[in-house]
Amino acid sequence: DEQYDPRAVQDKWQARWAELDPFRADDNDGERERRYALDMFPYPSGDLHMGHAEAFAIGDVTARYWFQRGHNVLHPIGWDSFGLPAENAAIKRDAHPAEWTYANIDTQAGSFQRYAPSFDWSRRLHTSDPEYYKWTQWLFLRFYERGLAYRKGGQVNWCPKDQTVLANEQVVGGHCERCGTLVEKRVLTQWYFRITEYADRLLDDMEQLEGAWPERVLLMQRNWIGRSTGADVNFVIEGRDEPVTVYTTRPDTLYGATFMVVAADAPLAEEIVAPEQRAAFEAYRDEVSRESEIERLSTEREKTGVFLGRHAINPVTGERVPVWASDYVLAEYGHGAIMAVPAHDQRDLDFALKFGLPVRVVVDTGEGDPAETGVATAGDGRIVNSGPIDGLPKAEAIRRITEILEERGTGRAAVNFRLRDWLVSRQRFWGCPIPIIHCDACGEVPVPDDQLPVRLPDDLRGADLAPKGTSPLAAAEDWVNVECPKCGGAARRDSDTMDTFVDSSWYYFRYCSPDYENGPFDVEQVRRWMPVDQYTGGVEHAILHLLYSRFFTKVLYDMGMVDFTEPFKRLLNQGQVILNGKAMSKSLGNMVDLGEQIDEFGVDVVRLAMLFSGPPEDDIDWADVSPQGMGKFLGRVHRIAAEVASEPGADLAAGDTALRRVTHRTVDEVTTLVEAHRFNVAIARLMELVTATRRVIDSGAGAADPAVREAAETLAVILSLFAPYTAEETWALLGHQAPVNRAGWPAADPSLLVEESVTCVVQVAGKVRDRLEVPPAIDPGELERLALASGKVRDALGGAEVAKVIVRAPKIVNIVPRR
Ligand code: ANZ
Ligand code: ZN
């Protein structure tokens, strides 16, 4: 028979859907339940790739499921369209970044039309449109007014090739995440968002996400925020008026602090180093400045350091302890200086043993002496050698010593976070301009709201954009020179642009009212649509994008613009698409091209293969996937529909009951499976339904059996979640005019869900006395009990004792009375 080709039906249905526009969200419908299905929006670098195909197939299943359930679904699409690649392409081609960007967006939009996710295209947005970035600037100004956007000078990571500042997260192993160049440190004045002010809430509100976000993402967020509790302790430095504060999580070990270590690159080290040690210190510090943070924190490396020639006073023992500089203490964390307790901290012990510093045990953990074993004892135990806290266990000792420090005014309880403020300024062109004007007389002056957006100039191209160490905008004299909005004097625009993570921190609010002109979003629409019910996207965004979005949401909450504090109720992180065990990459030359796969196999096959290959969270190795197998399955679905099509409909009740049971059980199970994101298992159930249906057709009943039509229709509706083209084609074959994608989710008939039963014959002394309806898998003991409990059996026994019961489950029970 003729082979079904999923590619052959694509163009027809694509045109039909474009005309019907079945996936519009309705802002004004107050009746239907609302659902918001959000996919992480793409960056327009070239055409869509296999990773997109996977992510959007996964997100689409849930969206389409909600449509079939009759919900009012918001499933939007847009582009994260500012960013460095566009700028680099423009430099190379002597063009404006917008040309490359919008051409790629068009390409991707075309590919999406073909791939057919259930998008509401009317809400499409691009973060590089002035209509969008106007509101990014507006939000920046609100942050600024609240003290949440500020400028400060500081050491920053600098990529000498990209000529731009990098956030800590963009430095991987000391190298630029984008181009691999060794990162340098520079001191620059930069804009920051004060995300640290929200550190506690970012942690505490995670309670709302427990069970709904992947556990590992919550853990990564927790570690990134990194809250620890302990104490700040003041150490007097001989010859310095101000004491130096150190942060410790173990104030209970204060009596064991035998030296102090200052970060080699902290200003304090430079300040207190004794003249005779300065040369050694400076040589060491220069070495350290070339190390990455990861290297510095490694416990594997041999410890290095230099004595600063100064002493501090331990505030509880009164002892003089030496002050050293080392790289294992970070300038940016805590106070950039520590009290070293070598007996109970491994890094301190390594350092002490290397430089011959004293080790004093102050917690008796029952383990060997760290000075001899080389292993610091970090566990709980009784405090020793510690005056007033001797004998206490760790937790109590921490409480008590903190009280003592507070009474004496030499310390206090303290909380510390790993989280740093978010560096948001970039010295690049293709980003959202920072809406601030610098005036010699007035200082920083916000651009008045009615002058937004501050538009990017459109006459810069090619070499104008080449990195010069400052933003290319700074050289655009016409653009940069303005009148001060406050005093009217000559002033200059801030020439930095914002990190693109700012753009993507609020796009999902904009989707709720994409054309709104009186603010970033219509508060009322956001109230109705949000929070997002399901957010689908890559685990590479598990920390930053999600953390920044959560931060933005909390600020908007504080501004009274939204009434919830977490934007994404449920999160689904899909795995990667890999090939032969390796991530696909251009440099490895092992890219599988999505367009080619679609040309060869068709959209439905690619989608099904993505979804069937395993749980959505797992990586997909494309080398292990069988598109041919998926094609065959679709062919079998299509053939069933084609055979049924010629048969008239009939009374369902007269249909094959066994097949009807399979159909209804499939509906019931697939419903649960889709809600639990177990799409691969749901597809396996459909395959079983196809097999069962084929068996009935081939058994002689043919396609005329009404149960076969029921199965074929059910297949089409459920398949519309995974393979929309074939679903539509088979649905039409079955005689339907309206599209299948809003046909409505089938309901399982509960009476068909109860297990099948078999008839069990119960004999007494070889004569049939009763018949029982029992489940086929009944336990023999249970069957015996049922048989003996039968009234008819009791009558037959007439009070005689039972000698023996022979059970052949599930069909026969033979009861032998004693004679
Ligand atoms: C004394 C001590 C004794 C410590 C002990 C630990 C164990 P978290 O949990 O990450 O906050 N520390 C403080 N500031 C530091 C810095 N700038 N660079 C490197 N290390 C620093 O870690 C806090 C602990 O890390 C602090 O507690 C301090 O060492 C160290 F048995 O103080 B502890
Ligand atoms: Zn001014």
Biggest beta sheet summary: 7 strands, mixed
Q: How many helices? A: 27
Query: Which stretches are low in confidence, meaning pLDDT under 50 for 5 or more residues running?
Result: none
What's the pLDDT, averaged over the residues?
Answer: 93
How would you sum up the global shape?
Answer: globular
Fraction of residues in H or I helices:
25-40%
User: Rg from C-alpha positions?
Assistant: 35 Å
Q: In terms of structural class, how would the helical and strand content be classed?
A: alpha+beta
How far apart the termini lie comes to 68 Å
Number of strands: 34
The ligands bound in this entry are:
ligand ANZ, zinc ion
Beta fraction of the residues?
15-25%
Describe what this molecule looks like in 3D.
The chain is an alpha+beta fold and about 800 residues long. It is about 35% helix and about 20% strand. Strands 10, 11, 12, 13, 14, 15 and 18 form a 7-stranded mixed sheet that branches. A 4-stranded parallel sheet has the order 2-1-26-27, with helices on one face. The model has no long low-confidence stretch (mean pLDDT about 95). Bound molecules: ligand ANZ and zinc ion. Zinc ion binds near residues 487 and 491.
